[in-house]
Amino acid sequence: MLEERDLYFHKLKLTFETALKLRGGPSLVFAHSMGNNVFRYFLEWLKLEIAPKHYIQWLDEHIHAYFAVGAPLLGSTEAVRAALSGTTFGLPVSEGTARLMFNAFGSSLWLMPFSKYCKADNIYWKHFFEGKVCCPHRQQCDEAEYTSEYSGWPTDLVIIEVPSVRDMGAYPSIMDITENITSSMECGKPTLLSFSAREVSDGTLFKTIEDYDPQIKALVYQLEKYYQGDPVLNPLTPWERPPIKNVFCIYGIDSKTEVGYYFAPSGKPYPDNWIITDIIYEFEGSLLSRSGNSVSGKPNNSSGDGTVSYNSLSWCKNWLGPKVNITRAPQAEHDGSDLQTVMNIDHHHGQDILPNMTRSPHVKYITYYEDAESLPGWRTAVWELDKANHRNIVRMPVLMRELWLEMWHDMHPESKSKFVTKAFRGPLRNEDCRWDYAKARCGFPEHCEYRYIFGDVHLGMSCRLKNTSTNLLQQYL
User: Fold this and answer.
1) How far is CA 191 from CA 145, 154, 160, 185, 210, in A?
2) Is 306 within 8 Å of 253 (Cβ atoms)?
3) Which residues are catalytic?
4) Closest Cα to residue 76, out of 426, 286, 316, 390?
5) pTM of whole model > 0.85?
């Protein structure tokens, strides 16, 4: 398996080097969801493959910018659901079948949630133990892990009900249940056990329920061999900022996102032996449960993107410097009148940044957090898009527009500002022009005009740019 991994990353390294030779310039890395985990592992692998003094030089020459989109930087609670009960993702299969599929993939545990307070030994194992079998990356947790609650997450990730009678499995046959219902189950109430993110990532959860779910031993084996014992990186540890010149962290916020589960035995055979009895959600700064019961915890300031919780997505705010500029603008094209900006906000590592800005109802915003101070030659920015769904964010026109403008700005020899200005977002394509029904004309009349072409099926399609977007682009330098 290690040889296959090395072969894959050697090909990826060669791809960057070939692109540099053919294009004459560095590449852009655009990673979505678990693709960010793959890229992180590649960077750690690369650090061991080339001389340390050449590592930063190689990155500077081959990668201009890294766009981390919807990155589960502290994992995702949905991975726990998929491991114990199954997540179909809309596929026409049962949850039990989906669980079998998920647990059969070696990469599934890569998405498991973990504590922001626990790190692994940072040793270049390959340089010192080449060809030898070495010990796992020992997990070391800060005191905050034990003095604070929930491992930095909004609540306990898993609360699971186990039988009080040890010889009663999680998936007995129907006859076993009938025979024992009076003799065993009446004598004791089930026990509720709660598990934090640390207890999920270090295997405590899975080891605890081995007696009730023997098949879970395969997950424990994978966790210990391919994650805790990985020779390059234990990926279930907090990220540091990649040493790349330009890093942009982009994600959606304020969607209803699952952050915790209640499980109980179902009385059915594996893989349907666990059922979800309740789900805890975060939604716009509060916690709520599917059942309506009260929830204990510390909600995040915002909620996640529908798949990954806010604390995991926003971990990259720790990559920002000590001073941050914050700008909030409508996602739609605008003239800058609704722009809100706060400059040089103090940023303390480990603490979220809360912009003191207003929101108009029914308006979706994009909030930019950009370095005001950073290391020379480095830039870091975080973009939060209201209501952007985890799986659909890569298809959002507003994201494609911002990415294009940022790269056009970076490549232009006359660019003056550190980041693209947000003061104006005019139409750059015919598709950006729209019909303003309130004024019975095309929106942005200084840039768009009504020009019907055969085949247009609605008024908006007949709104087109008056001229090319060349002049408009000068505003973004």
Assistant:
1) 25, 23, 8, 12, 15
2) no
3) 33, 305, 349
4) 390
5) yes
